[in-house]
Structures are given as C-alpha cells and as structure tokens.
Amino acid sequence: MSASTLMVRKSLDAIARSGSEDGEHALNKSLGWFSITAIGVGGIIGAGIFVLTGTAAAQYAGPGIMLSFVIAGLACVFVGLCYSELAAMIPVAGSSYTYTYATLGEFAAWVIGWDLVLEYAMGAATASVGWSGYAVSLLADVGIHLPPALTAATGTVVKLADGTETHAIFNVPAAFIVLALTFMLVRGTRESARVNNVMVMIKLAVVLSFILIGMWYVDTSKWAPLVPENTGAFGEYGWSGVLRGAAVVFFAYIGFDAVSTAAQEAKLPQRDMPIGILGSLLLCTALYVAVAAVLTGLVPYKDLNVADPIAKGVDAIGMGWFSAVIKIGALTGITTVILVLLYGQSRIFFTISKDGLLPQLFSRVHPRFGTPYLSQMLIGFCVALLAGAVPIGLLGEMVSIGTLFAFVLVCAAVLYLRKSDADVHRPFRVPGVPVIPILGILMCLTLMAGLPFDTWARLVVWMAVGVVIYFFYGRKRSLAQQEAA
Q1: I need a labelling partner for 218 at 20 to 30 A (CA). Which of 114, 238, 272, 418 fits?
Q2: How far apart are CA 184 and CA 154, in angstroms?
Q3: Which domain range does residue 285 map to?
Q4: Which of 96-100, 167-171, 407-411, 457-461 has the lowest mean pLDDT?
C-alpha cells in the first residue's frame, strides 16, 4: 500500500449514500430546525458564560471583554457559514471528519476525527466537573453536604469539616451526570432533544432575566475606559488583552459545531442545518455581549476573577434570592453542554466506524431506539471515569486548540470543494468565497497562536497516539483503501 493511498478521498456520492442507508446502521430522522438550533444553544451556553466572562475581564480585557466576545463570535460566524454549506451539501453525522474525508483524504480525516475527541469527550468531562461544583454548592445552600472525598478528582487534597485534610476518592457527582445523560441518549434522540429543549429554555430565561434586571442597575462609569491601558506585558489589558480575552472566551463557543453532527437525523437538512448553526451562533453571541456589558457595569472588572461572576453581579444588585436562581441556571446550562458533547462524540465515532477505521460496534444502531447505543455507552463510561478520577482543568486549553484545528480544516474544505466539485448542488452557499473561508482560517490560526507552548506539546502527543492507531488498525480495515486497492 503506497503512501499516496493515504490521501484517498470518499466521493460526495458515496458519502450521500452512506447517509441514506437503511437497516441496522440507519439513524432516525426526527429533528426539526428548532431542536437543531436548541442543540447549538445547548452546546454553546454553559460554563463559558457563567465563569469565563468574569475571569477574562479581570485578567485580560477589562470592560473590553465585550469586544473579545465579538471577535471570537465573528471567527465562529465565518466558520459557521462554512459548516452550513457543508452540512447542507453533505447531510451525514460525521461533521468535520466527513468534510475532510471528501477533500484532504483519509489520513487527514482520521487525524481530525481523533482530534475531535479532545473537543467532545474531553470537553464533556471538563464540563461535568464544573457541573459537580455547582451541584455541590447548591446542595450546601439547602443544608445537604456531600463528603469532600466524593466530590473531587482522585488524589486531590480536600479539607474535611473539622479542618483536617485528606485525599479525594472519586468525583461522584461528575460521573453521575455523565452516566445519567448517557442513559438518556441511549434511549433515543427525540426524547433527548425534548429534554434538551426544555433545559435550553430554562437557562435562556435565567440569562435573559439577569440581562433585563441587571441593565437597570448598570453604572456606565465602570465601562470607562472600555479598553484599559496595557500594563506593558502582552495580553494584560490594552488591545492585546482584548485579543487574549477573545482566545480565552473562545472556549465559551465550543459546541456549536456539534450541530453539524445532527445532519443525518435532521428532517430537512438542507434547510434546517444552516438555520440551526447560524441561528444558535448569532443568538449566543448577542447574549454573551449583553451579559458581559451588564456584568462589567455592575461590578468593577478587577473584582470579577471568581468562580461565580454572574452570582457576584446579582449580589451587587442586592437580590440574594436571585443568586440561587443563577446557580440553577448554570447547572442547567452545563447539563445541556454535556448532553450535546456526548451526543456529538457518538455520532462522529458512528461515521468513522462505518468507514472501517474503528470497530463496527461503534456504528451498531439499537433496533428499537434508533441510536448508536454501544458507542454511546462506551463513550459515557470512559468520560464518567475521566470526570470522576482526573483533574481536567488543564485540558480546557487542549479542547480549544483541538476545536480551532478542526475549524481550520472545515474552512479549507469549502475552498477545496468549490474547485474539485464545482457543479455539485449546494442548498446553502457561503457568500464571498474565497474571502470568508480564508478569514475564518486566519482568525482561527491567530487564536491558536495565542495558546501556550505546552498546549501545543500535548496536542502533538495526542495526535501521535492517533497516528499509531490508524496505521496499526484503521488503515488495514479501511473500506476506502480496499476499494482503491
């Protein structure tokens, strides 16, 4: 097998046929545009809006965090336009993995598929640890105190009620929420989507309440200057701080691309996918900017470097009861993020498995529920284990770099397919090609450049593991390689 076969492509016709199969590998087409948009909103609004807003304002951008959200949102809109064209043209479940297979070939597709594990599985694990923190805090407010040894990662030093220290055994709440949502996803996409829709409505109500109530208490003098003077170090206020803030809050947008993994279960993907992707992005960007504006107008930005900045903003208003509501909203918001990321990971593995690069168990669909149940259960178990046993704070940057890498390839796929398959019908077309995809690539690369060196090192190690799996398993069993032989 020559090295050139690494670039074997799947034709658009073959991809389209794989998305319309019947039998044990067929997914139910049960999602409309509202549910798909809700998946996007559910994936985006979570820990980012409830935590990162304050941290980025205090450490990097000041009130200019509003501009940081605009910059990060603009980069995502460029990428979202590219996702919309590809998802409408190639309505299957593989997201950027599938798009890369159709353009850059099999090896690049495998690399991006492996890379997406950082975003989906690791992202879900990270979010579940945040969920655990809010859940423990909320239970403590009502007099229920869980043992500290069962609410932190294995080996973490925790303080007991008597002041003594011990080592944590396992983060039970984090593992619990992952397993509970996995059970729900195994039972059915339609049922999971309904629950997600309800939770999205709850957290949107909480976020809107904060904006509408808080806006009457905003002190506009706290916005001056909008961009604080730089301290002399890159990224500490000034315009470089606004850019660094954009790189940090980019994590808050991670999850919108999970919308594209629902393409194979959309009733009318050519119409519903662009609505879901772009609608969720624009809605969440507007909410992010509004929350940042209200928050920095309520509390001096240097005081926002706390785990619960929105609750601190509520305290500034003087409504103590609303703090509990905010915690419930945060808990609900993070729940939908975990749900969407677990869902997206199983759909990507589903598609990779159908191509022969992973074992067939990942693409086996339950005869009654119409979901890839074995894949979903295995993913849920692994994510629950990670969430309960491993401190995952350092993986946040890995999630960001993995996602940005995927976004670069999606934009490149649009440019490639416009030349290689110019005559293919496109229900949705990115305007301003090649400018929009190129801008998306440049903005993502700029944000990647702002991440620390050790994050790049971890990415290289992770990718090396994926390359070994491909050459020792996937390449030998690839259906495309067998057809090309």
Answers
A1: 238
A2: 26
A3: 28-448
A4: 96-100
The distance in angstroms from the start CA to the end CA of the chain is: 8
List, as one string, the DSSP characters of 368-419.
TT-S-HHHHHHHHHHHHHHHHHS--TTHHHHHHHHHHHHHHHHHHHHHHHHH
Kindly state the greatest CA–CA separation across the chain.
Answer: 72
Amino acid at 433: V
**Residue 153 covered by a domain:** yes
Structure tokens at 63: 């009130």
- pLDDT at position 180: 93
pLDDT value, residue 92: 64
Please state, in angstroms and rounded to a whole number, the distance separating the CA atoms of residues 211 and 203. 12
Residue 26 DSSP code? P
Torsion angles phi and psi, residue 325, rounded to 5: -65, -40
* Measured distance CA(392)–CA(174) in Å, rounded: 11
Q: 3-state DSSP call for residue 6?
A: helix
Section 97-103 average pLDDT: 80
Tell me the β-bridge partners of 159.
165
22 belongs to a structural domain:
no
Residues 354-359: what's their mean pLDDT? 87
Residue 160 lies inside a defined structural domain of this protein: yes
Which pLDDT value is given to residue 1?
Answer: 46
CATH of residue 208's domain is 1.20.1740.10
For residues 376 and 380, give the distance between their C-alpha atoms in angstroms, rounded to a whole number: 6
Q: Kindly report, residue by residue over 374-394, the tens digit of the pLDDT.
A: 888 999 999 999 888 877 656
More confident residue, 329 or 265: 329
Selected residue with higher pLDDT from 11 and 207? 207
How many Cβ atoms are within 10 Å of 318's Cβ, its own excluded? 8
Amino acid sitting at position 197: N
Neighbours of 211 (CB within 10 A): 16
226-232 long-range Cβ contacts below 8 angstroms, 24+ apart: 226/62, 226/63, 226/64, 226/66, 226/67, 227/61, 227/62, 227/63, 227/64, 227/67, 228/62, 228/63, 228/64, 228/301
- Domain assignment present for residue 73? The answer is yes
Q: Which amino acid is at 294?
A: V
Phi, psi of 266 (to 5 degrees): -85, 140
Task: Tell me the C-alpha distance between 231 and 239, whole Å.
Answer: 11
Q: Tokens for 84, please give them.
A: 């919309």
SS3 103: coil
Residues 6+ apart with CB under 8 A from 265: 27, 28, 29, 30, 31, 93, 189
Domain count, the chain: 1
